[in-house]
Amino acid sequence: MSVTVLRSNFRQRSLCRLLAVQQHLMSSQAGSDILLERSGCAGVITLNRPKALNALNLSMIRQIYPQLKKWEKDPETSIVIIKGTGGKAFCAGGDIRAVTDAGKVGDRLSQDFFREEYILNNAIGTYQKPYVALIDGITMGGGVGLSVHGRFRVATEKTVFAMPETGIGLFPDVGGGYFLPRLQGKLGLFLALTGFRIKGRDVQQAGVASHFVDSEKLPSLEKDLVQLKTPSNTDVAGVLNSYQAQSKLDDGKPFILAEHMDQINRLFEASSVEDIMQKLNEDGSSFALKQLETLKKMSPTSLKITFRQLQNGASMSLQEVLVMEYRLSQACMRGHDFYEGVRAVLIDRDQSPKWKPGVMEEVTGDMVDGCFKSLGSNDLKL
């Protein structure tokens, strides 16, 4: 095949990818992916992509952010409630497929999505009115960013929480570098590196959710919240506490990782990912060896980036963390593992990513340092 034909084919493929990105954006803008309404004293945000498990796209971000800022200044709006439709998910993450397609052709979406998502995360984390996230169902990645930084996060028996990004060549972003190191002991680092899933009441016991309420009670809870008259955080907490007190589901059941917390705190207290893996191997228990096998499947680059992200984030403000994470997001967009991880997990679904580098030892300190370097005038500004 001639060089001319190869170039022509490459241009065609690039054009097809670019058209797919543009088409995606147009369809997102045309539909009702997000519902924004006033109800009583509340501004209510409903994520409305049930077939996509309410995955967050750029169009949704661009509708939520200005409305949040408007409600924050509106004297008639005293509280914000965010929820998802469909019964399966609050929000299963960001629209990674669209970001992948954009990154491959150098489309601005791969910058704009992360930049605007993190600005939204910061707006939630600094919100001046009660913010209640009803995290009923799958809550991962971008869905965590829409909830965890708010004052009130209400889990149900349907809630499934995880930050699984190291398995797709990314890192636990959306402020993961801020909230994960602040969980008990080394739990945050464990969740960040392994992508371990926690469910139901365990999400509250981990410290990710502030309250636990039966899923069937959420409509009644929402009704009581919107009927409050200029509620304070204390008023909202009182309503949430009363509903939590009514729930007997798994009441008194120990945290799923309770019996392993001493191990997690001991084995994940280390100076590097390599040290953690060595400790897991030397421990030799079935729990330790299972976590070791999990880590061996993850992107070595992602593991090292994530380890340092949480190490740095433990002493940073949310704003400093988001600036750092934007740098990391763009490093991932320039790299190999993100595209390969998405291919293996979400596109071809062969679950066999070919990481580059493929082993931990080949991910050098200089490579990791480069991911954290300032982007100069392109740095995230909050």
Write the layout of secondary structure elements.
Layout: H1 3-30, E1 34-39, E2 42-47, H2 58-73, E3 79-84, E4 89-91, H3 96-105, H4 109-125, E5 131-135, E6 138-140, H5 142-145, E7 152-155, E8 160-162, H6 176-179, H7 187-194, E9 198-199, H8 201-205, E10 211-212, H9 218-226, H10 233-246, H11 261-267, H12 273-283, H13 286-297, H14 300-313, H15 318-334, H16 337-347, H17 365-371
Parallel strand pairs: 2-3, 3-5, 4-6, 5-7, 6-8, 7-10
Antiparallel strand pairs: 1-2, 8-9
Protein architecture, described:
The protein has helices at 3-30, 58-73, 96-105, 109-125, 142-145, 176-179, 187-194, 201-205, 218-226, 233-246, 261-267, 273-283, 286-297, 300-313, 318-334, 337-347, 365-371, and strands at 34-39, 42-47, 79-84, 89-91, 131-135, 138-140, 152-155, 160-162, 198-199, 211-212. The protein has 382 residues and is α/β, with parallel strands linked by helices. The strands form two sheets. It has a six-stranded mixed beta sheet with strand order 1-2-3-5-7-10, with helices on both faces. The protein is globular and about 60 Å long. Residues 1-10 and 18-30 have low confidence and may be disordered.
* Mean pLDDT figure: 93
Roughly how much helix do the residues carry, as a percent range? Answer: 40-55%
Largest sheet: 6 strands, mixed
Query: Radius of gyration, rounded?
Result: 21 Å
Termini distance? 50 Å
Strand content: 5-15%
* Major sheet: arrangement of strands: 1-2-3-5-7-10
DSSP strand tally? 10
Low-confidence runs: 1-10, 18-30
How do the SSEs run, as a string of H and E? HEEHEEHHEEHEEHHEHEHHHHHHHHH
| Overall morphology | globular
Continuous helix count: 17
